[in-house]
Request: fold
Amino acid sequence: MSASQIPPATAVPGDDVPTLLVKIFGKDRPGITAGLFDTLAAYSVDVVDIEQIVTRGRITLCALVTAPSPGGSGPAEGDLRATVHSWAESMQLQAEIISGRGDNRPRGVGRSHVTVLGHPLTAESTACITAAITSAGGNIDRIFRLAKYPVTAVEFAVSGAATDALRSVLALEAARLGVDVAVVAAGLQRRAQRLIVMDVDSTLIQDEVIELFAAHAGCEAEVAEVTAAAMRGELDFEQSLHARVALLAGLDASVVETVRKEVRLTPGARTLVRTLKRLGYQVGVVSGGFTQVTDALKEELGLDFAAANTLEVADGKFTGRVTGDIVDRAGKARLLRRFAQEAGVPLDQTVAIGDGANDLDMLNTAGLGVAFNAKPVVREAAHTAVNVPFLDTVLYLLGVTREEVEAADMHLE
Reply:
């Protein structure tokens, strides 16, 4: 059909065109949707909008249609109402029909996706979050459950409030309630975030790698104290790195294989990476730890990028020094930019995940910075925070549902 042959868009009425909102609800079974529209088809109405949801076997089906013309030879609105109610009764359903004019009310300026994660998600926290959305000037247009385990994840489509302002309001409420709330702008940008870069220690893995090495060198307590101070932002990272690595001087480098086996992936790490790769994302890691471990993780998980510090080895033993450029707070942000350039992805379409103060520059450089079980200073500065111990919950922030993840896993290659 050529452009000149396309008929006028009569299915999108103006504000003055009479419309009917037909609502059907009851026990779900096959054929309800087809049956309703087969019934409506006899009245030559146009479909303006459809919404359907099934919750615990109960269906709510809403159809917004143009009202039948009262003139001519066709049946009128009263006849349509009677027929729909009769059909619904025959299906043991309830029907409600509301007259009005035009389409749905236009959404307000400013659209966001608000993802709420609860473990569990209580009625009280849901009430407080939704009230906060309203107080910020937002209107909830749609609600959708993304996952029911290992956490309950629910997404609200919100309009009428600026994303940054909404994020500020909900961050305070989330902290008070002890739930995780992520606010991202709606639109194509969310679907175009095609590079994810993660910190390694206490993010991709549960461990601090230098502490694993220190345990074999007999200096675990000393290293742990310096690490904790650095992660809190109390010490310069480069100075603390040199101080910790110096304690490893003389340790036999063969311990690397043992440490690699001791590394524990964070719950959900494999699922996150596997799903992202199936979606076409590129995935990288940057670490203040060591290439002796990150190179193995890159190979094991099929990562696209990996960068970290390198422990110097001489005569089969660690010298207590690192070689090459230091991967510190500024270095992580620099590597994110480099990975994005190599991947051909604009920075505003990248996601960064981290937990420590040395991740802050990277989190703020990315289009979306996620603080994962992070220190307070990091949670306050990041775009959003996740405080449940499952790394794959980051998928929900991207709009990926648990059902989609499980469906993909059923078709393993």
